[in-house]
Design a protein that fits this description.
Number of strands: 0
Mean pLDDT: 92
Radius of gyration: 18 Å
Strand content: under 5%
Number of helices: 10
Helix content: over 70%
Largest sheet: none
Number of domains: 1
Oligomer: single chain
């Protein structure tokens, strides 16, 4: 009986996605002590800690599968669900609080309008994690949903990379382009290894990429204005 040789694609893409997040938040979070930025609020620090724990777990989980430790992978999955819930909770409140100060984003959106961008990312992250949990006994589908969850929530880090490079004016197209690049990497991997592309990557990846023009358009619509303004008012009073 031959041992199953597992691909190293998932451990590698987990590291690549995590490095993108760490690089994006290096100045404002991980290396903040090297700058003259004001102290972080408890909320931001909590959100950062939770997300860092998620990144570490994400990498460990892919390594466990590659090492054939599915038993331990499943046990740690409970911690993953808890961390995902905390990311969504702290992330939503961060979006709310961040909408308080009046300013115009590089996208041309007001802070009230921009809330839809963050909420959409968190909603897709939640949806993909939920799908991953629901398909946890179907490893081929489960792992793809979890990678899509990470791609869906990559935008804040990508935007900060552009700001750090003084290229914020290009963030409108670069942020979705980076998400698309990771989706394409997944599609290429599937095709090269299996000569077929899994529907989870096709549909899920299309949703992530297509969500970007929708966000920019929907945020400016009349139906979202009272929602965004209400969020901004809550944030201003928080």
């Amino acid at each position: 009986m031959h041992a199953v040789v597992r691909s190293q694609f998932y451990p590698k893409i987990a590291i690549a996605l995590s490095l993108m997040v760490i690089l994006g938040f290096s100045r404002t979070y991980y290396l903040r002590f090297l700058s003259d930025l004001p102290p972080m609020t408890l909320l931001v620090h909590l959100h950062g800690l939770v997300f860092t724990a998620w990144l570490a777990l994400f990498i460990v989980q892919t390594r466990l599968v590659a090492a054939h430790r599915i038993d331990l992978h499943r046990k740690l999955g409970i911690a993953g669900v808890v961390l995902a819930a905390l990311i969504i909770a702290t992330g939503l409140w961060t979006v709310v609080v961040g909408a308080g100060p009046a300013r115009i984003r590089v996208t041309g959106l007001t802070n009230a309008q921009h809330t839809l961008v963050g909420i959409t990312s968190l909603a897709m992250f939640a949806a993909f994690v939920a799908l991953g949990v629901a398909t946890r006994k179907r490893g081929a589908v489960h792992k793809r949903y979890m990678v899509l969850a990470m791609i869906a929530i990559l935008s804040p880090a990508t935007a900060r990379i552009m700001i750090g490079l003084d290229l914020a004016r290009h963030a409108t197209w670069f942020v979705p382009a980076m998400a698309a690049a990771f989706v394409i990497a997944c599609l290429v991997y599937d095709w090269r290894r299996y000569r077929v592309i899994h529907p989870a990557y096709v549909i899920g990846g299309a949703v992530i990429v297509a969500s970007w023009p929708w966000r920019y358009m929907a945020a400016r619509q009349e139906w979202y204005q009272p929602i965004g303004e209400w969020i901004a008012r809550v944030g201003a009073g928080a």
